[in-house]
Amino acid sequence: WSEIPWQDLAFPSVRWALGALVLTFGWSLLQTPLLRLWADLTGAEAPRWWDTAAQIASPGDLTLAVLALAVVPPICEEVFFRGVFQARLLALGTAAAVLIQAGVFALYHLDPYGAPVEVLSAVLLGLLRLGAGSLLIPILAHAANNGLALVEFAGRVPLWDSLGPWAAPAALLALLLGAVVQPWRVARG
Predict the structure, then answer these.
(1) Does residue 181 surpass a pLDDT of 90?
(2) Cα 78 to Cα 101: distance, rounded to the nearest angstrom
(3) 188 falls in which pLDDT band (50, 70, 90)?
(4) Which of 30, 114, 115, 143 is 20–30 Å from 38 (CA)?
């Protein structure tokens, strides 16, 4: 317990939170085509739990799915991977700390299908953790990302496919806006 950076749960700013959520929205939209490309290149298959997650049929199922996917994992994983593990690795340098924790994060998930997206997500979350100086920002971003995945599962239709031709430009615009807002905030504060 003494290793957990409890002081880092202070909320840094609303601007940081909004920027992180915009960035997360863009990243979340781009994950589906990236996963499909990875599967086509490697032959990796979606894990079986995806099929189970798509069977959300009642409010009780949805409540359990939200807790199991969009609440508990973001809190636990961010406290460990970005709050404790990445902080310990900073002695090796910022880039090494972010990249090592990202690789371990992907290995932890044991998911060949999602590995590239998990590595990139962990890099993004690690950078958000460093820039915000708080664990709340990566927790919110992680929860939003997982929540959007849950929306896709619950809808039983891939969200990307139902969005239409504006999905890619919207995702890229969200990534650009989020990326522009965050470094500006770090430089000023």
Answers:
(1) no
(2) 11
(3) very low
(4) 143
Residue 82 burial (10 A CB sphere; 0-12, 13-18, 19+):
buried
Query: Distance between CA 155 and CA 151 in Å, rounded?
Result: 6
Per-residue pLDDT of 102-133, as tens digits, reads 999 999 988 888 888 899 999 989 988 888 88
SS3 state of residue 46: coil
According to the model, what pLDDT value does residue 44 have?
Answer: 79
CB 1 within 8 A of CB 143: no
Query: Distance (Å, rounded) from C-alpha 84 to C-alpha 69?
Result: 21
**Do 61 and 53 touch, CB atoms closer than 8 A?**
no
Q: Is the dihedral of CA 99, 104, 105, 109 positive or negative?
A: positive
pLDDT greater at residue 7 or residue 105: 105
How far is Cα 44 from Cα 9, in angstroms, rounded to an integer? 37
Q: How far apart are CA 122 and CA 26, in angstroms?
A: 15
